[in-house]
Amino acid sequence: MFATSCSNDDNEGETIVPIQGKYNLRQTGTIINGQEVLVDAPQNQSGCPGDYLDLRLSNTAVMGDYNGSDCALTETTGTYVRSHNDLTITVGNVSSTSDIMNLTNKELKIKDKTTGVITVYSR
Fold first, then answer.
1. Is the pLDDT of residue 1 over 70?
2. Which of 90, 108, 122, 78 is nearest to 15 (CA)?
3. pTM score, two decimals?
């Protein structure tokens, strides 16, 4: 015997896709006059692989940044905590909390609660 539910509030509006994974930085932006305005991420160095965010099962967050003519990779390690649709990343003594706007098998879109900056990553 199988039971299914069609209620929209089974997961209280939060996405059930696991957040762990490696995400490539794709776009950044903000909301202007009620409209989302996104541009290709200026943080990505031309000619280099895209910067990334790797959220691991151990709650470790690794941010990869490619820079310079030799595309040197700098990795910064911190921790992350997901609470409902909030994602908090802590590096050293600095924490930032973002709203998870979209989380699918192909995309993570977050909006920083302090600055309002939207960041879009793809898997």
1. no
2. 108
3. 0.85
